[in-house]
Amino acid sequence: VQQGSRLGITTVVSTDSIRHMMRSFVDEKENPLLWASTYHAGECLDPVAVSEAKARRKAKKRSGVSSNSGMDYEGSGDKVEGKPIGKKQMAIEGYKAQSEMVIDSLDRLITAWEDRKESVVVEGVHLSLNFVVCAAENHNTVPPVHLFSFYSCPFQLCR
């Protein structure tokens, strides 16, 4: 945010505010993941379904078919296919699922800001290095900059 103000960029949008706007279009019962705290998003997911989805993604990677999602990460540590995974991994999967929803909306907002030739700083826990790289590739006005704050790391996994 401070770097943006040094460049004369006064508009700052947080990924949490994007998620909050998205909530006005969907009921909590329809999409509890969107309404959950980022840190508790994994509690909204079915552990067996997550494990099966991870196994399918892993199989696609082995067969050379890439996933549609820019949110897939290596080294996920799945357990046996179809079996529930641990709480720590569920927290990560919930974070990734929620982030993917927010990032889909954010990408459309970036397009709108580009069309209006507006500068904006986007901050928030939902941003990933994968998204920043993809955004820089898809939007020629997005510089590939991703600042990481040690204290904003979710789940205390980075410490």
From TrEMBL:
Residues 56-82 are annotated as: Disordered. It comes from the Eukaryota. This is Uncharacterized protein. It comes from Aegilops tauschii subsp. strangulata.
